[in-house]
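Risk register update: the risk of archive-format incompatibility is retired. Evidence:
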Amino acid sequence: MKRGLRSAALLTLVLLLTGCGSIISRTVPGQGHGNQYYPGVQWDVRDTPWRFLTILDVPLSALLDTLLLPVDAQHGPYE
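Archived output:
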């Protein structure tokens, strides 16, 4: 039972952490680095000490960035 609870807690934390690149690049000023399309993926692939989370975050950021393409086209570069 403890192992299942621990696994569920870990999965929940991982899911809460994913998508951060997409959200940060659009909401925190200066984090989009002028990227108009797929700013979350581009934010994720930069070199940081948190590289291991990038493996989890890039596919979900790509999905979210794809869904937000119409918004990005209308908004313009994120500065």
